């Protein structure tokens, strides 16, 4: 462990998209907008506000255009849209998304299940999106899903991931995300791959996206941070999961991550008290409890009075 935790860790909020996409109950558009508006006040630099995928594939996010139109945008916050193809990109730029997040899987099997295409077909489609984006003030980020493991194929060859990153850079994408789509990563694996990737991608352009499926989410964050990564996705309450990956439970929990950083002295610029208040509204909104821990237990500094009679 490097021991120096003075550099800022950037937390990018993905609950409005990745968090809500597998919720069984419909969340009203106005409630999505209200959630994003509150997140916009918490100190995030990026919020993944929605997606422009087929409503048949992800019905929970079929109101992406309405959500982007209704959000009260805050200065300094980039509002991101996930897109699967050229049609989705056209809808996203019409909705004034600040950044488009393009996704393909390192696993050929998962890409077929998720995108109904081969990796090569996905990359060819990305070229059309890059050409479209040249006419708009929009940034482009490329995500490599199943970077650390696939539920259909198992462990992913690191060289496959590195070649995909090279392909992204050749296309001109400004950012790269490595996604642990089903929570199969471990800290040693994360540390080793991040060190290799940082030879190709500057830390300011690299994001890590972890799930807590097997309980290693925050450990993987620390391993990546110690290897030099500085940007991480997280979801309020620990919401989310991939609908096309068996067993993919929630993302790492935003308030748990921010609390970890606060305890260790890693600056984030995120208002933890604001997050906790917001997270505690989610069970009523969604109709079920969430996996986040700090919203239930409180922070270490939230002390309690002694029981009566104890002096």
Q: If you compute it from the alpha carbons, what radius of gyration comes out, rounded to the nearest whole angstrom?
A: 19 Å
What is the terminal separation in angstroms?
41 Å
How many domains, in number, for the residues?
1
Helix content: 25-40%
Tell me the strand percentage band. 5-15%
Report the uncertain regions.
Answer: none
Count of individual beta strands: 8
Order of helices and strands: EHHEHEHEHHEHEHEHEHHHH
CATH topology: TIM Barrel
Mean pLDDT: 93
Output the CATH homologous superfamily: Aldolase class I
User: Given the helix and strand composition, which structural class is it?
Assistant: alpha/beta
Give the name of the CATH architecture. Alpha-Beta Barrel
Describe the largest sheet. Answer: 8 strands, parallel
Number of helices: 13
In spatial order, strands of the major sheet run 1-8-7-6-5-4-3-2
CATH class: Alpha Beta
User: Which term fits the overall shape?
Assistant: globular
């Amino acid at each position: 462990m490097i021991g120096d935790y003075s550099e800022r860790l950037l937390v990018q909020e993905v609950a409005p998209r990745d968090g809500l996409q597998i919720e069984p109950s419909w969340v009203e558009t106005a409630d999505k907008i209200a959630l994003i508006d509150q997140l916009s006040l918490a100190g995030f630099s990026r919020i993944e506000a929605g997606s422009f995928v087929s409503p048949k594939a992800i019905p929970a996010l079929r109101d992406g255009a309405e959500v982007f139109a209704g959000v009260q945008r805050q200065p300094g916050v980039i509002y991101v849209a996930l897109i699967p193809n050229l049609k989705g990109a056209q809808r996203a730029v019409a909705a004034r998304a600040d950044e488009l997040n393009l996704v393909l899987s390192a696993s050929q099997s998962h890409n077929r299940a998720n995108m109904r295409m081969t990796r090569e077909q996905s990359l060819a489609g990305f070229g059309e999106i890059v050409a479209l984006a040249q006419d708009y003030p929009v940034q482009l980020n490329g995500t490599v899903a199943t970077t650390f493991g696939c539920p259909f194929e198992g462990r992913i060859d690191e060289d496959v991931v590195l070649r995909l990153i090279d392909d992204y850079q050749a296309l001109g994408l400004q950012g790269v995300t490595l996604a642990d789509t089903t929570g199969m990563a471990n800290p040693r694996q994360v540390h080793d791959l991040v060190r290799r990737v940082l030879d190709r991608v500057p830390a300011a352009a690299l994001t890590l996206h972890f799930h807590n499926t097997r309980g290693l989410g925050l450990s993987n964050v620390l391993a990546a941070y110690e290897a030099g990564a500085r940007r991480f996705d997280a979801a309020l309450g620990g919401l989310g999961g991939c609908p096309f990956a068996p067993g993919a439970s929630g993302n790492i929990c935003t308030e748990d991550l921010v609390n970890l950083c606060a305890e260790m002295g890693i600056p984030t610029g995120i208002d933890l008290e604001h997050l906790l208040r917001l997270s505690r509204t989610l069970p009523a909104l969604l109709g079920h409890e969430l996996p986040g821990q700090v919203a239930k237990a409180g922070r270490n500094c939230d002390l309690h009075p002694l029981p009566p009679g104890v002096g």
